[in-house]
Amino acid sequence: MVISQTAKPGLYQFRAGTRDLNTQLMGTAQGWLEVPDLSRRGLHLSSILLAGLLDNGGSGRIGGETFALSRVANGILKYPSGTTILYDVTLYVGPKGTAEEASLLVQTEILSNGETVMRSDWEPPVNRKAAADGNGITIGGKIPLGQIIPGSYELRVTVRETKTRKETQESALFEIEP
Q1: How buried is residue 93: exposed, middle or buried, by Cβ count under 10 Å (0-12/13-18/19+)?
Q2: What predicted TM-score, i.e. pTM, was given to this entire model?
Q3: Cα separation of 152 and 135, whole Å?
Q4: Is 15 inside any structural domain?
Q5: Which domain CATH number covers 63?
Q6: Domain around 153
Q7: Among candidates 2, 7, 76, 4, which has minimal Cα distance to 37?
Q8: How far is the C-alpha of 81 from the C-alpha of 106, rounded, in Å?
């Protein structure tokens, strides 16, 4: 089920609940969503969408590759050790320019307890396409987690506009299981 809602800029909490009619088991989830004010100048990033790349089988396809959504426990995305994660974020540029015109660099970092354990170089976005809403561009990439030991981590994606050197970043929590 997909529910679409128009919202004014601001910070929102969303909540969802579901019940299996056969077993009567119930589950709930909540999260925070920030709707950026696109009338203001600057770069704005959406939340990060994460998926794990699979070697065989799977639940969907991105760019010709099979992926599976992560397992979630207590609101934390969980991936098996050795997984390659796929990420997507949507970049919006304020009213003085369009994301298609911007000259962009992207850096990804993986942090554990605030300390960087993996950092990419600043690179032009490899997977760059117009966003479904037509107002921004979606930037994505792959990060192999094979060398990272099981534990709790934060993925941080930073986008820099090279002409102005302005930056914006988003992060997402995840866990690598043994």
Answers
A1: buried
A2: 0.76
A3: 34
A4: no
A5: 2.60.40.2550
A6: 38-177
A7: 7
A8: 25
